[in-house]
Amino acid sequence: VQPARRRPIDSAACQGFKENVLFQSWQTRSDVLNYCAGVALDPADPDLVLREAETAKDRERVVDERLDPYSGRFFPREARTESLANLIRNERGVEGIIRARTWGLVTERCGDVGVRWEEALNRWRESTEGR
């Protein structure tokens, strides 16, 4: 069964949607992710003292692995900067997937075949810098 072909949307409506809604929301989300990445790189880790205390306490611990075979394992807590960096990396990956899928649907309906979403977003950014 062939999927139903949707009729294209008026080019002025498509352009207005891309410029006034889509690219602005993408830029806002990029700004938020960039801000969060900056926070993730901040070396002032409030959990550092707690992690150091846990590490010292774990070094002093005497464990009888016959009573608790899992107690000998030590899983140090990840630094806040590392966990935030991983989270931001994952969010950027998800954002890339969402943008690619969204752009595929926009190009299908608007007929902008051949332009990648990164190129279109960068052109929009360049055009709005002077405003």
- Roughly what fraction of the amino acids lie in strands? under 5%
Shape: elongated
SSE class: mainly alpha
- Major sheet characteristics: none
The residue-averaged pLDDT reads: 81
Radius of gyration over all CA atoms, rounded: 24 Å
End-to-end C-alpha gap: 48 Å
Number of strands: 0
In N-to-C order, the SSE pattern is HHHH
Contiguous helical run count: 4
Share of helix among residues? 55-70%
Low-pLDDT regions: none
Q: What are its keywords?
A:
131 residues, mainly alpha, 4 helices, elongated
Describe the structure.
- With 131 residues, the chain is mainly α.
- 66% of the residues lie in helices and 0% in strands.
- It is built from 4 helices and no strands.
- Helix 1 runs antiparallel to helix 3.
- The protein is elongated and about 75 Å long.
- The two termini are 48 Å apart.
